[in-house]
Amino acid sequence: MAPPKLRLQIIALVVAVFVFSDNGETRKVNVAIPTRGMPVIAFSAALERGYYREEGLDVQLILMSAGLASRALIGGDVDFATVGGAGLPPILSGASLRFVFTSFNRPMFWLYARPEIRDVKNLKGKRVGVSNIGSGPDSLLREVLKRNGLEGGRDVVVLALGLAGNIHAGLVGGVVDAAMIPPPFNFMAEEAGFRELVSFIKQDFVEMQGAIVLREGLLQSDPALVESFLRGTLKGFRYARDNRSGTLPILASYLKIGKELAAKIYDAVRPAMTLDGTVTEELQKKALEHVLKRMGLRESPSLERIFNYALARRIRAELDAEGWRPGP
């Protein structure tokens, strides 16, 4: 028979195990997200459908601007970031980050302006709001300005306004004359009488959004965590991609909007979703083009230094072999 002290330790351990199992929390995971909208729908769906919980993860989605999210990831303040284009400049500058999953390969941004501004050329001398300087929307804006004979920062004042809601508020409040905004704010801007100048989702740009970006060292130090988080996200991605009716309530809840507006957003951006969370080498190169131009770089690191979709492909194959399908 075990000594009393040892028996107490065993009892405490058993209680701890039962509490642990009942809570279903094996690991708290902090994930930086730049929006609550469609770009991160795979993560929202995985959370709401319990896919992360099935993987033993207690995932916390923390809202912060894309630029701040990248810095938080580099500093180790979050485990993963769902940034897209904003994750590329740090990598091109030497940060040890990797893209391992991508939900969308086309930019979900719209350039809206005051109604008297009729085209991009009319932005000369005007102020345009973006999330952060060096972010994906900033790079896209500067490229479309260049295509119209203008230079951001010289002919057009580019202002960093942070989160999407702040950018929309800046446009409505007259802080800026135009703004790079994602859904649902593009529909709100249109209803308020602002003019759509560019729908980037219809252009030839490639922009990775809803990505999983992580520190390269995490792939070596904690591959089990990466795999669990990626599997839960891929399940959420499949649910969101293939189940419109089930996804609309999730999107409406996170954005605090009506189901009708959620349907407009879903239908507008659903064509930009990748097939399986990965991106071809051709599109990887295109995603880098305007960022390299923006940073004045002629060459970039090898694609393997930036993108690693091997794990995503393996998990996809495993789910297919299991016959896994998202529920209703």
Please, could you describe this protein's structure?
The chain folds into 2 domains: 199 residues, Periplasmic binding protein-like II (D-Maltodextrin-Binding Protein, domain 2), CATH 3.40.190.10; 93 residues, D-Maltodextrin-Binding Protein, domain 2. By secondary structure, it is α/β, with parallel strands linked by helices. A 5-stranded mixed beta sheet has the order 7-6-8-5-9, sandwiched between helices. It has a 3-stranded parallel beta sheet with strand order 2-1-3, sandwiched between helices. A two-stranded antiparallel ribbon has the order 4-10. The chain is built from 15 helices and 10 strands. The radius of gyration is 22 Å and the shape is globular. The relative contact order is 0.17.
Which descriptors would you attach to this protein?
five-stranded mixed β-sheet; 16% strand; 2 domains; single chain; globular; 328 residues; D-Maltodextrin-Binding Protein, domain 2; alpha/beta
Rg for CA atoms: 22 Å
Helicity level, as a percent range?
Answer: 40-55%
The total beta strand count reads 10
Which runs of at least 5 residues are low in confidence (pLDDT < 50)?
1-23
| Fraction of residues in β-strands | 15-25%
Biggest sheet overview: 5 strands, mixed
CATH architecture of the largest domain: 3-Layer(aba) Sandwich
Q: Which H/E pattern describes the elements?
A: HEHHEHEHEEEHEHEHEEHHHHHHH
Question: What is the quaternary state of this protein?
Answer: single chain
CATH superfamily of the largest domain: Periplasmic binding protein-like II
Count of domains: 2
> What fold name stands as the CATH topology of the largest domain?
D-Maltodextrin-Binding Protein, domain 2
Determine the mean pLDDT. 89
Lateral strand order in the biggest sheet:
7-6-8-5-9
- Distance between the ends: 52 Å
CATH class placement of the largest domain: Alpha Beta
Class from secondary-structure proportions: alpha/beta
Shape call: globular
Q: Tally the helices: what do you get?
A: 15
